[in-house]
Structures are given as structure tokens and as C-alpha cells.
């Protein structure tokens, strides 16, 4: 009697077939006209319906890589004139790298990226007064003399009244320099976080399910309303607070001069994981960054990193810490173990 495979074995088999399909694609891209290679691929696809299904899905995923425009291109700016892109490379049956680059997990990540790349921008444009594109920083001089610097892929809604000034951070990150006015408190609302100030300079960043606030100078009150019971904290220069998706609150100390350094095109990392740095780089890269090396992502580093060239920054990090970066197309970077 045949014993059906366990769930664990089935998952392992699927992962193995995903890996093999990625290898076949890259081999065929190097030698698209090799009849023996095509015959071997056909024999591999004939092993089971699952082999055939995974091959078709993998081939389609790589085709989408080449055809996909830069993130938010339809929302932020007119489409550029067509040029030699990865689409042309794939159409010609060739791929620029002959070694194994990615496996099934990358294909799944690409499908997810393609599904959400444009829709959020459309929604934000309906809600926000100001929206920045990928790799765009924008400085806003508000009517009271306050100044806001918006990070890439950020959205703000500004509402001023006689008794108060309110700015909603709908997405991304912003650095605020607030002109004092005791009659009109300045409030920033970011998800479940409310920041109230009179005159100060501070940074606010929305993160998945939570956010962070850091103060360069002055004093702010932070009310975390997205948890029960609500929490209120006062932050002075060099203090920061991070609110996790779970509602957990983590106070941190920062160098005051480091707060808002991204407005000058730099990341200052002090004992941060490379995964955190990658998250900071993503809004500055007009495509997808996929890290397939958990050990590399988990490393904690300190340094100053350039936001102006996120690919070069990530390549240097990979080189220094035993990983390999490959730019598979103009809009896909993959980091793997060496």
C-alpha cells in the first residue's frame, strides 16, 4: 500500500521543485537554442503535473519582471519612452546571469510586489494634499513658517484652523521643524500615534502596523491611541519611541544630530539590523529588493549609508558581510548567500 506523503514532505517537495524550475529558467536563458537542454526541460516537466505547473508559473514570473514598469510610474509621472529593458532580454530568450540567482520564494515575492505596486498610490492621492514619488524628497514651507521635509513614498494632509494646526502623516516619513505658537498647538497624527508640540524639530516614521518618533530639539508629547490603555510620553532632544504593531512601546536614545539625517541623503545606523537598513533603502529604489539570506539580514551594523544610490549601498553591505547582490533587471535586486 502506498503511504501518502506528509504535509512536511509535500512542502519540501514543492520547495525543491520551485528551486529546480528557477535553475531551469536561468540555464535556458543562457542557451535558448540548445535542443538537448530543451528536451531535458521537457522531460523534467513531464515528471508530474506539479512540475509543469511550477515551470509555467516561474516562466511567467520572470516575464513579469521584464514587463513591469517602475513602482508607481503610472501615478507619479508620465511613462518614459520604451527602451532596452529586461522585457527585451526575456523576449530574446536570454538573461544576463548564468548562475543560479533566485528560487521559488523570489517568484512569490515578485507576484506580491506586482499586485500592490500601484494601487496604494492611487488611494493616497485622493486622501493627501502632498504625495512624494519613489526617491523624491520634498520640502514644504507651511503658512505659519513651519517646515516639513517629506521622505520618498510619503503622503501628508495639512489642516490649519484658528485653534490648532494638524498634519496627518498617511504614509512614509517626515521631518518637522515647527514654529512656536502657544495659541495654536501643532499636532501630527500618524496611525495610532499623536504628537503634540509648540516649537521643536522631530522625525515621524510610519512602519508596518506602528511607527516611531525621534526628537532633534525641543519637547513633544506622544499619545499612543492605538492600544489599550492609551499611553502618553514626553520626549526631549535625543529621545525616541517606537511603537510596534502589537502595541508594545520601546523607548530609545538617539544622537540629536542623527535625527532627520535622511533629509541630507544619509542613513545613520547605530546597532541596526541590515533588514532595517534595507527597509530604509526601499523607498529610494524604483523596484523590488529581495533578500534571500536570513543570516545577512539579521546582522547588526553601525555606519553611515548613502540613500542616493541604494543599489551601491546594498552591494557594499553584501560584499562586506559575506553575501552577493545581483541586479536581475532594472527593477529587481536580489541578495543571496555567497
Query: Low-confidence stretches at least 5 residues in length (pLDDT < 50)?
Result: 65-104
**Structure summary, number of beta strands:** 19
What level of helicity do the residues show?
A: 25-40%
Strand-residue fraction?
A: 25-35%
Cα radius of gyration in angstroms: 24 Å
- The tally of helices reads 10
The span between the termini is: 44 Å
3D architecture notes:
The chain is 33% helix and 32% strand. It has helices at 7-30, 35-45, 49-67, 73-76, 86-91, 104-116, 119-127, 274-281, 294-298, 310-320, and strands at 130-131, 138-141, 147-150, 155-161, 164-171, 173-177, 186-190, 193-197, 201-207, 210-217, 219-224, 231-236, 239-243, 249-253, 266-273, 288-291, 300-306, 323-329, 332-337. Helix 1 packs across helix 3 and helix 3 (49-67) packs across helix 6 (104-116). It has ten helices and 19 strands. It has three domains: 7-120, no CATH class; 138-259, Jelly Rolls; 265-337, Phage tail protein beta-alpha-beta fold (3-Layer(bab) Sandwich), CATH 3.55.50. It is elongated and about 80 Å long. The protein is an alpha+beta fold and 338 residues long. The protein has a seven-stranded mixed beta sheet with strand order 1-4-5-7-8-11-12, covered by helices on one side. Strands 2-3-6-9-10-13-14 form a seven-stranded antiparallel beta sheet, with no helix packed on it. Strands 16-19-18 form a three-stranded mixed beta sheet, sandwiched between helices.
